[in-house]
Amino acid sequence: MIELGKIQNLKVMRKTEIGIYLNLENNANEADILLPKSQVPVETEIGHELEVFVYKDSEDRMIATVKKPKVTLGALAVLSVVQITKIGAFLDWGLEKDLFLPFKQQVGEVIRGNSYLVGVYIDKSNRLCATMKVYDLLSCESPYSENSKTQGIIYRITEDYGVFVAVDNKYHGLIPNKEIYGTYKIGDTVDVRVKKIRPDGKLELSVRKQAFYQMEDDAQKIMNQLKSSGGTLPLSDKSSPEKIKAELNISKAAFKRAVGRLLKEGALKITDEGIVLTWEID
Q1: Per DSSP, what are the bridge partners of residue 37?
Q2: What is 138-206's CATH topology?
Q3: CATH class of 211-277
Q4: pLDDT tens string 220-234
Q5: Is 105:133 a contact under the CB 8 Å cutoff?
Q6: For residue 255, what pLDDT is reported?
Q7: Furthest-apart CA atoms within the chain: distance in Å
Q8: Is the entire prediction scored with pTM above 0.85?
Q9: Which CATH class is domain 7-65?
Q10: Where are the beta strands (DSSP E) in 93-138?
């Protein structure tokens, strides 16, 4: 069976003025499909096998190409939006005919010129289409261990769970709400650390380093904020987590670790007004 949306080897069955026609050997149940003349390799003869990708042309006919698309059926890739229309968006996947992304398969706002992680599926009309709903296409069998560093792309954001990330564009990952520091949007690429591997293989992620490494960055952030605010910050270990996060964009636990270190170094002191630098500001 000739597989729509996949790269496969097909045999040259006949040659015509407009190109060559391909099929599987002894496949009388399916019609031959055209490989246009402009793409026929030199010295190709009847009986030769060619590696081609099969999709549908603008007239909805099965057609072959020797070009390799950026994504195939069931796979994932980051593709750029080249057009927005009343029926959906069109993506550049490396072929003459752009890949259609229906409105119902979009997640969040899709903007022309931006790139998004998508998968490819066959719709009810037997056409290849893109989808941003990639959760079911991701794998739980990643090669990572706890505290591994990697990268991923954000494909969904929810208030209940957090930021969903496709690690390496192929593995399940989640930045839980408690680990979110900053503002993110769908399509963003993020550097992450594997904080935990769940029993089902899905990855719990963090954008922060391990505590003993992150403390250095947090201490520097506190010092910079103190200097820019005149040497005093109205924060202490009694401040709410929300207030600390709003002021410094770090957790209360991280704040307490960093302040503890700075106290030991004599860089600041705690007063009724909050934390105060103990040396003169340049």
Answers
A1: none
A2: OB fold (Dihydrolipoamide Acetyltransferase, E2P) (2.40.50)
A3: mainly alpha
A4: 878 888 888 888 888
A5: yes
A6: 82
A7: 89
A8: no
A9: mainly beta
A10: 99-102, 115-122, 128-131
